[in-house]
C-alpha cells in the first residue's frame, strides 16, 4: 500500500536525482482561463516526463542483488524511458516491452538509454502484461509496472509534495489540481500527497475524450474500460482501465474527471509553447486544456495543472502550432 | 558602477518576483558536445527572457515618486516585454520604443502587458536613442536602457548567482559559461557574479556570425561596431556595438567570444525542443549552439550555456524543427 510515509521516503531517494520542476504562470493563460493557472511542467523532468520519478523510486527501492539481475517494464513510451534511464543510472540492465506504434522518438530514446526494446502489436490484441511476465520469468528480471505498483505511485506522489509547497509560496492553498491521467499513478500519488500536505487542494484526473475510463469509472463507482485500446493523439495517457491500486485512492480522494478533445490538447500545447516556453506532448497537455477550455467544470480563483510530459514528435508539434492560426 | 554588492541587492529586490530557473542537462546533448552541458533556461523567466530580471531590478530601484511618472524603454523586444511587465506589476505606466520589424509576437506581447508602443524604422537609420530621449524629456518618464544601465546589469547578474550555486550542486565548479550576447548586459552581469561566487567559472559571449561586435571588440581590445544594424535571424541579440559600461567589465573578466551560424542557432533550438523540452528563440539559442557545435573552442569537462529567451514566432520555430530532418 502506498501511504504518505512511502511518498516522503521516495522523496528522500529521489533527492539529487529527480529535478524539482518549477511552478509556472502566465498572465496570458490566466486571461484565457478566467482565473489563475499554475502549471507544473514535468516535461522538464529527466527523460521528459514525470515517469522518471516513479521509475527511480521503484528501482532504488529494490534490494541491490535483485536490482542487479535487471529491470523489465512495459509502456507506451514515457514509463519506458524513465525505467531505462533509472536502470542505466543504477548500472543495471533493462528490457522494455513497447507497442510497435509508439512514437518514433520514444522508441529511439528508450534504446538510446541502453534498454533492450521488445515491440508488440497493440491493435492486434497482444497483451503487454503476458509478454512482460514471460520475459520476466525467463531472465529473472524484476517487472516494474507503470502505475499499479506501490513504489511507482509513491514516486509520482513527490510531484504532489512539490505542488503543495510551491503553490503555497504563490499564495494558492485551495482549489483543483488537474492531472493528466492514464492508469492513474500520477493522479493517485498526487492525491495522497495533497491529502497530507494541502488538504484543500483536490486532485482531479483529466483524460482525452473517448478514452475517459477513469472519469467514467469515478462517476459509476466502479472500474470501467475504454472501448478501444488505442487511437488517441494523446498516446501517453491511454490505458485500458484504471488500476486496481490507483482507482480506490482516486475514488477516496479525487474530484470528478474531465475529458478534453484532441483539438483542445493541441491548442493547449500551442499555448504552452507561446506563453510558458515549454514543450508538451498531447497527453501531457490535457490537464492544461481542461484548465483553459473547461473552466465551467472548475471552481475557485486558481487552478493548478500538471503538464506531465513533453516527448512529442516534431510533426505533431507543428500540427499543434497550426492551431494558433 | 555595477559591483557584486549591487547584484546581491538586486537579488533581494527580485526575490519572490523573478523565477529561479532550473539548471537542465540531457545525456543526448552531452553526447553531441562531447562533454557535460548544463543549460540555464531563462526562456522560462517571466515574459520569456532574462530581461525581466534587469527590468525589475531597475524599476524597483527607482524612488517611488520618480517611478510613478512612468518608465520608458527602447528594445527589439525582450527588454520591451520585461520593462512593460515590471512597470505594470509596479502599477506604473510604460512607453516602449520598438523597431517596426520586431517579431510580431514581441510587439503584441508588449502591448498586452499594458505598454504604449512607439515603432521606428530600424533599417532606415532612425536612432532609437534619440526618439527615446525626446519622449522621455517630454513626458517626464525615466528611461531604462537595455544594457548600459548599472541596475539592469545588476539584475542580469542574478543569473550568474544562480548558476554558481546550481552548477556547484551538480559538481561543476570550473569551466566556461557561454552567454548569448547583444549589448552585453547579461554577459557582464554574469561575469561579475561569477568573479565573486565561482571564480573558476568564466563567462564568454556568444553572438551570431556577422553580428559578432563583442567578439571582435574583445579580440581588438577596443569597441568595434557591426557593419549592419539588422538582418540576423537572431534579432534579440543584435545591437550596434558593445556598451560603454558592459565592455570594460567583459574585457576584464570574460574569455574570448564565439560566433555561430544562423543554421547552428536553428539546430540548437531543435535540440532544446527535443532534449530539454524548452522553447528557445534563435538569439536565445546561440550559446547552446556554441556548446554543441563549437566544442573545439571550449576547454574542460563541462560547459554551461544560458538559453536567454524563448519569444519566437511559430513559423521560425517550425523552420528550426525542420533541421531535424
TrEMBL record, chains A, B:
Entries under Pfam families matching the protein: PALP (PF00291)
PROSITE patterns membership: DEHYDRATASE_SER_THR (PS00165)
Domain Tryptophan synthase beta chain-like PALP: 16-309
Keywords for the protein's UniProt record, in alphabetical order: Magnesium, Pyridoxal phosphate
Cofactor(s) this protein cannot do without: pyridoxal 5'-phosphate; Ca(2+); Mg(2+); Mn(2+)
UniProt protein name: Threonine/serine dehydratase
Source species: Donghicola mangrovi
Amino acid at each position: 500500500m502506498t501511504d504518505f510515509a512511502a511518498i516522503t521516503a521516495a522523496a528522500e531517494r529521489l533527492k539529487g536525482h529527480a529535478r524539482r520542476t518549477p511552478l509556472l504562470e502566465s498572465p496570458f493563460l490566466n486571461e484565457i482561463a478566467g482565473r489563475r493557472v499554475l502549471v507544473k511542467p514535468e516535461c522538464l523532468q529527466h527523460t521528459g516526463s514525470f515517469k522518471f520519478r516513479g521509475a527511480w523510486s521503484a528501482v532504488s527501492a529494490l534490494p541491490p542483488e535483485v536490482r542487479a539481475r535487471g529491470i523489465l517494464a512495459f509502456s507506451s513510451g514515457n514509463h519506458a524511458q524513465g525505467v531505462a534511464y533509472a536502470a542505466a543510472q543504477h548500472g543495471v540492465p533493462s528490457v522494455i516491452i513497447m507497442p510497435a506504434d509508439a512514437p518514433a522518438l520514444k522508441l529511439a530514446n528508450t534504446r538510446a538509454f541502453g534498454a533492450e526494446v521488445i515491440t508488440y502489436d497493440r491493435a492486434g490484441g497482444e497483451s503487454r502484461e503476458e509478454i512482460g511476465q514471460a520475459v520476466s520469468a525467463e531472465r529473472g528480471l524484476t517487472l516494474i509496472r507503470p502505475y499499479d505498483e506501490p513504489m511507482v505511485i509513491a514516486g509520482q506522489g513527490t510531484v504532489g509534495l512539490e505542488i503543495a509547497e510551491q503553490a503555497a509560496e504563490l499564495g494558492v492553498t485551495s482549489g483543483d489540481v488537474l492531472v493528466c491521467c492514464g492508469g492513474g499513478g500520477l493522479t493517485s500519488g498526487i492525491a495522497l500527497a495533497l491529502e497530507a500536505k494541502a488538504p484543500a487542494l483536490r486532485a482531479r484526473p483529466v483524460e482525452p475524450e473517448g478514452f475517459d475510463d477513469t472519469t467514467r469509472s469515478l462517476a459509476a463507482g466502479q472500474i470501467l474500460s475504454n472501448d478501444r485500446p488505442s487511437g488517441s493523439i494523446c498516446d501517453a495517457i491511454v490505458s485500458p482501465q484504471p488500476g486496481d491500486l490507483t482507482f480506490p485512492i482516486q475514488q477516496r480522494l479525487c474530484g470528478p474527471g474531465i475529458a478534453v478533445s484532441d483539438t483542445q490538447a493541441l491548442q493547449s500545447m500551442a499555448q504552452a509553447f507561446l506563453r510558458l516556453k515549454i514543450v508538451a506532448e498531447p497527453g501531457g497537455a490535457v490537464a492544461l486544456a481542461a484548465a483553459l477550455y473547461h473552466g465551467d467544470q472548475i471552481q475557485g480563483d486558481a487552478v493548478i495543472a500538471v503538464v506531465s510530459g513533453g516527448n512529442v514528435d516534431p510533426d505533431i508539434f507543428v500540427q499543434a502550432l497550426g492551431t494558433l492560426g
